[in-house]
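Re: weekly structure request thread

Next one in the queue (110 aa):
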Amino acid sequence: DAPPAWSEAVRSRLQTRAQALWKAVQSSPSLSMRLPDGGLFGLIELPAETDDRAFVQRLAAEQQLAVVRGSAFGAPGTVRVALTADGEVLQEAVSRIALALESPENDPGE
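Done, posted below.
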């Protein structure tokens, strides 16, 4: 068992990171998400009809960003972002996701 102080510190860091991710997503008109109550991941909702499998491949190739397609976890049309990175990294990730969605190559039915 982990000491209570350690567990609380980890929970606090994850909550702070989840809030940073949520705040960054709110600044993009093409993205949305619900603030998670807990856990290690946030699910960012993509615009309707976006193929999350193709989109995460594009993110890796074009934006050098690794996220996991939500459809692998029963949440199609989303990307799963780990809250193990700090807030600045999460903000940059959201910026890259939004940039990829705005690019002319983005075809929602891809």
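The first strand starts at residue 41 and ends at 45. The radius of gyration is 14 Å.
Next request, please.
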